[in-house]
Amino acid sequence: MKIKSGPHLYSGESGRRIVWTQVGTLWLVVVVSAAFFGWSSLMVLAGSVGTCVAIDLALSRLAGSRNPASLPHAVLTGLLLGLSLPVMSEMGLMLRIAVLGAIIASLLGKWIFGGMGHYIWHPALVGILAVHFLFQAEVGMVGKDKYLGGDRREKYLLLSNNALLVGDLSRNQEPRFYQFGQDRSKLLQPNDYSGWCVSVPVEPAQAWQLYRPVQILQELGKGQIRNSASGTGPSAVEQVVYLALPPLADAVVGCTGGGLGETSVVAILLGGLFLIYRGYVRWQLPVSFLAAAAVSAAVLPLPVGPSGELVWLPALSGMSRAGAANGFDDWWRLLAVGLSYVSFHLCSGGLMLAAFFLAGDMATRPIRLGGQIIFGVGAGVLTIVARIYGGWAMAPLGAYSALLVMNTLTPLIDWLTRAKSRGK
Asked: What is the pLDDT of residue 378?
């Protein structure tokens, strides 16, 4: 059919090209994940992507769909799903989990609604939350303590700095003691893990067993770490920043425990900025997401009082009460601890991946700019609320859960921010 009326503006863009560009911006994230988690991580990604593509080809033919963007969208869905998964020592099991997640994402997340552009929730989010719910122990969310029989947090595997790409994750070591930041030797025993760049596991181990930073932040939100009753010594937030969380540089580069594509802020940010540069994502959406999360983390109260009482403005509670008389110097330390605490919320738990690559999905985000800002603010606040106050095992997945809720509210947001008719 020829369209004769005009004038028309041709941008040179198409849905197919846009989605393939989104896939291409993830290449650095994939490379970093292979370096830190080994070449076997590529098997997990291949399993999730291949399954999504196979289902898309089969159902497109069955339904007679001719949407040219559907196939690259299947590749993107499989990639995002695989990048949210960790790599454990049992590679066969992780591959089966990735394939099952891809089946759920494709069938229940995309094609049950009619395929490309018709779904309510981002298909990758449906697959991510489904497999983490069904296989909580296998993907490291929880595990059964063989002695006590209760739930406990599992650690995630990360190759050491002398075994990048080719290391064996099944040969790993669990650090006994941690000590980061300033010299806090009086507060902690001598350690054997001071950060990924300077610590190497004892041979023949080639990998570390580490908690995800978001898991440690959740323990703080559950009141497991508190201020001392005597009013002396470091605050709870200060203890977490100096003694439990890894160096912030590790979280930015990506050498911490977590999902394959969740850990490297640098790789995610470079890809996200390119999408903003091309105009596929408006910068206000990820910025509002991150800003709302940062403000919520800085303001919302934590149960860190000596008796478990709530303490507001936790980002300002990093100053040691014992040295409060030092005045100006303590204010600088307060600021450093507070910024580190907020930064770890932003750099962990898949929040960056969600803000730049999942929140900007054109079918599930609001249409107008005002609606996208509301969408981002809501997702950022819900992410931190889930992390701090969520007592369930999947609370560390707060960013994905928050986006699923906001996807559900997108029609309402579009209605509230709809354009007003002229002349009325």
From this structure: 97
Can you list the alpha helix ranges (DSSP code H) found in 300-368? Answer: 328-346, 351-353
Do 175 and 191 touch, CB atoms closer than 8 A? yes
Query: Phi/psi of residue 85, each to 5°?
Result: -95, 145
Does 92 score more than 60 pLDDT?
yes
For residue 237, the model assigns a pLDDT of 87
pTM of the model: 0.89
Euclidean distance between the first and the last CA atom of the chain, given in angstroms as a whole number: 36
Interatomic CA distance for residues 342 and 347, integer angstroms: 9
Please state, in angstroms and rounded to a whole number, the distance separating the CA atoms of residues 264 and 360: 19
3-state secondary structure of 185: coil
Residues with Cβ within 8 Å of residue 143, at least 6 apart in sequence: 137, 151, 152, 153, 154
User: Is residue 189 packed enough to be buried (19+ CB in 10 Å), middle (13-18) or exposed (0-12)?
Assistant: exposed
Q: What is the mean pLDDT of residues 124-148?
A: 77
Model confidence over 261-285: pLDDT tens digits?
Answer: 999 999 999 999 999 999 999 999 9
Work out the number of other CB atoms within 10 angstroms of the CB of residue 159: 25
Contact 354, 329 (CB under 8 A): no
SS3 category, 73: helix
- Cα angle vertex 111, ends 110, 117, to 5°? 55
* Structure confidence by residue, pLDDT tens digits, 155-213: 899 999 999 999 999 899 888 766 554 444 443 444 467 788 888 888 899 999 888 89
Among left, alpha and beta (phi > 0; psi -120 to 50; other), residue 12 is left
Fill in the amino acid letter for 186.
K
- The DSSP result for 10-53, as a single string, is --S--HHHHHHHHHHTTHHHHHHHHHHH-TTHHHHHHHHHHHHH
Q: What is the DSSP string of 129-143?
A: HHHHHHTTTTTTS-E
